Amino acid sequence: MILDRFRLDGRVALVTGAARGLGQAIAVGLAEAGADVCALDILPAEETLQQIRACGRHSSLLQHDLLQTDAAAADALVRACAAEHGRLDILVNNAGIIRRSPAVAFPEEDWRAVLQVNLSSAFFLAQAAARHFLESGRGGKIIQIASMLSFQGGFRTPAYAAAKSGLAGLTRALANEWAGQGINVNAVAPGYMATEVTAPLRADPERRESILARIPAGRWGEPSDVQGAVVFLASDASAYLHGVILPVDGGWLAW
What we know:
This protein has a single domain, classed as 3-Layer(aba) Sandwich (Rossmann fold), CATH 3.40.50.720. It contains 8 helices and 7 strands; from the N terminus they run βαβαβαβαβαβαααβ. The protein is globular. The termini are far apart. It is α/β, with parallel strands linked by helices. Helix 1 runs parallel beside helix 2 (46-54), helix 3 packs across helix 4 and helix 4 (108-136) runs parallel beside helix 5. The chain has a 7-stranded parallel β-sheet, sandwiched between helices.
């Protein structure tokens, strides 16, 4: 049955930034599709873990600061997840931070932090996960959470735009290398979602209305809107997709 190819029964996913927002929705969506989930976040994530368990799936938490993630730390995190759950099949690099400031005054520490969390840690975790997938002989799925700023420049967010554009390029580069080895690397690019990241935009009446007026769907996205796309890319139904940047944007890029 074709619908069976969307199921994730018996698989294990590692989701970064899973304590709230998009990451929480992604973790729960994967659990609803049948996966056990290891949630990685600097914050406590008991709410996420409880929702995963309510789906009848096993959950665990890796509490870790991605600002401190180098290649060795990423390797340790992947191994810890695999040791807890017995395997690892799916990595979702969702965690991200944003800093807003005019480019001429953008603080160096903010630049380094955004690039570290949004891009460097994603590479190191993908690298470590790919090694595990190759060692297991089962292949695996890597899903990056990109952004509309993977396509556009944004405003007053130079580090975020650079990191998310870099993440799109990284997705294609890794897909090229690993497609022939049973590893799918793809990305989901959420549009303007009602999350903490967009809270300043939604609190500004002028920016809120100008953004909403350009979304053909006529509303801000909800975290649940990305669940289907991530489950698809994590499943066997997307076995022949490599290097795709899939917008989930209410039609924003079609405008």
